[in-house]
């Protein structure tokens, strides 16, 4: 995962990946016969981590938008995953990239999920009348991705963006009443 995040899919070699994880090149090929198969497994693993955390949040009664803030907060603890996603998402804009369909489908699913949530909030009177649910879903998705890029670029800086706080602030602009989850700000306790 880390190598794909550091150098991208196209620049990563199976030999270098095998060396990094401490197995032989033939051993890696035994489990993942092609780089495309390995990439699919890496993306699936990343999704399992996020999906299980999101499912646990929702099962505990956390509202979807609060769960999104928690996901953003968790991402700040996983720089390798954030770098992987950001690097591969940029590479996958090329139609011939093996992850092109994956990212297209992922964005479609994410935007549809957020649109439904914003529609439900609108119907409940909790969404500001000026917010279009479909447009808001795209804006929130773009904000999450943009924050990750800024966070990676500012790594190690004392001015590194607090992704969860910015996401929480943005959600407050969409909602009549802000969500219940408070971001963990420096010196604060969070939720």
TrEMBL record:
- Ranges for domain HTH tetR-type come to 1-50
List, in alphabetical order, the Gene Ontology terms for molecular function in this entry.
DNA binding
Under the heading Gene3D superfamilies, the entry gives:
Tetracycline Repressor, domain 2
In which residue ranges does the UniProt entry place its DNA-binding region annotation?
13-32
Coiled coil where?
none
Top-rank taxon:
Bacteria
InterPro entries hit by this protein: BetI_C, Homeodomain-like_sf, HTH_TetR, Tet_transcr_reg_TetR-rel_C_sf
> Which keywords are on file for this protein?
DNA-binding, Repressor, Transcription, Transcription regulation
A Pfam family of this chain: TetR_C_6
Would you tell me the protein name for this molecule? Helix-turn-helix transcriptional regulator
According to its UniProt entry, this protein's organism is Sanguibacter inulinus
